[in-house]
Write a structure and sequence with these properties.
Elements: E1 2-6, H1 17-32, E2 37-42, E3 57-61, H2 69-87, E4 91-94, E5 107-111, H3 115-118, H4 125-141, E6 144-147, H5 150-160, E7 167-169, H6 183-193, E8 199-203, H7 212-224, E9 231-235, H8 243-250, E10 258-262, H9 269-274, E11 278-281, H10 290-297, E12 302-305, H11 310-314, E13 318-321, H12 326-338, H13 340-353, H14 359-373
Parallel strand pairs: 1-2, 1-4, 2-3, 4-5, 5-6, 6-7, 8-9, 8-11, 9-10, 11-12, 12-13
Length: 374
């Protein structure tokens, strides 16, 4: 079989969630299917050595770089169909929630979430209009759809009426390197990032759906009521609509103890997470929630939301809160800073829960989508 793959998110040194998903699932697919031929389609110059996971891979770069709604259309509706036809692809695998409406090639598409349906005002206008117009068309066009959680599958069914029989549930895995921090690593990391103090850690982009404003307000309440003087470290790039977050931070009585770290390099992330007292992840909506899984591998307890996919991922390893309640978040910070028995229980549950989510399981779902078509 000749399988073409949309690999435009394989960006060296700038990969985020969908990029890692693409990398690890493609790596596993190529390993499992040595008799198939693969064509990796990039939208810019690519690292020939880094992403060629087997001798059965070709790669090409298609113009234009698809990082804007107009360029998305040009890439998916003109460049991709031409390449698929010329290469005589039997299947197109698109792991980033987009596909080609004009291509005739049977398509397996991965949908990570439909957050634009629930939080349209939190997405830049031009991107929002593109998603509103095209995501329903993509979902109906793809012959099979892979989701990363049961929540996303049901969300798609409810909002777009997609036949659940052509949807296959997988998951996410994690990047290598996440493990419990040693005592020495904790001391060194806390000395470098938090003045030697224990800290709560948030990991993810900073934008409204991630609920950072309420997290800062909750941290203020926790500290104002005599909570332990742990720092709050926020790891992740500033994405969009961050003015309100900046203003709340500026007005915090404890702003000196709240630190925006920006994008955290992959070499620093495991030790930053592993040295935290707890991961605090009160997102309003997630298709999966990879940081929860990373925290479990680091044996760090988790505070997270009781909504969308997050309870599915957290299982018994998460202290679940109402993300719209500042008091609930503040109370969880107090509990997890004071109750050693609770922390031990969450960590123990995480050792079991993490085994449910692997790149092998993620790839199983993609293969199920392929078998549905072929």
């Amino acid at each position: 079989m000749r399988i073409a793959v949309n690999t435009r998110f394989l960006l060296p040194d700038r990969m985020e969630g969908i990029g890692y998903y693409t990398q690890e699932v493609c790596r596993e697919l190529v390993r499992r299917r040595p008799d198939d031929e693969f064509l990796f389609l990039f939208d810019r110059k690519f690292d020939q050595g880094k992403y060629m996971f087997g001798t059965n891979i070709e790669a090409m770069s298609l113009a234009p770089p698809a990082r804007d709604p107009i360029l998305w259309t040009a890439w998916f509706e003109y460049a991709v169909p031409k390449a698929l036809k010329k290469w005589k692809a039997d299947l197109f695998f698109s792991p980033d929630g987009y596909c080609s409406l004009r291509a005739k090639t049977p398509t397996v598409m991965v949908t990570h979430d439909i957050a634009h349906v629930h939080y349209p005002k939190q997405i830049p206008y031009r991107a929002r209009r593109y998603y509103q117009r095209n995501v329903p068309r993509f979902l109906h066009r793809a012959e099979s759809i892979v989701t990363v959680s049961e929540f996303v599958k049901e969300d798609i069914r409810q909002h777009f009426g997609i036949d659940p029989n052509r949807m296959f549930v997988g998951c996410n895995g994690i990047k290598p390197g996440f493990r419990p921090a040693t005592a020495e690593e904790r001391l060194t990391t806390r000395s470098e990032f938090s003045d030697g103090e224990a800290y709560f850690f948030y990991l993810g982009a900073v934008h409204p759906r991630k609920n950072i404003e309420r997290l800062i307000q909750a941290y203020d309440r926790y500290r104002a009521k005599g909570g332990r003087p742990y720092k709050l470290l926020l790891g992740g790039r500033l994405a969009w609509q961050t003015d309100a977050t900046r203003n709340i931070h500026a007005g915090s009585a404890f702003r000196e103890d709240i630190r925006f770290l920006g994008y955290v390099d992959s070499k620093d992330l495991p030790r930053l997470l592993g040295s935290a007292h707890a991961l605090v992840y009160p997102s309003l909506s997630e298709g999966f929630g990879v940081p929860l899984l990373e925290a479990m591998y680091c044996e760090v307890p988790v505070i997270t939301s009781n909504t969308t996919s997050l309870p599915e991922v957290a299982g018994d390893a998460g202290l679940l809160i109402d993300p719209e309640s500042t008091d609930a978040i503040a109370n969880a910070l107090r509990l997890i800073s004071e109750d050693g028995t609770l922390v031990a229980r969450l960590v123990a549950a995480g050792r079991e829960q993490k085994e449910k989510f692997t790149w092998a399981r993620a790839t199983d779902a993609v293969e199920a989508g392929i078998r549905y078509i072929i």
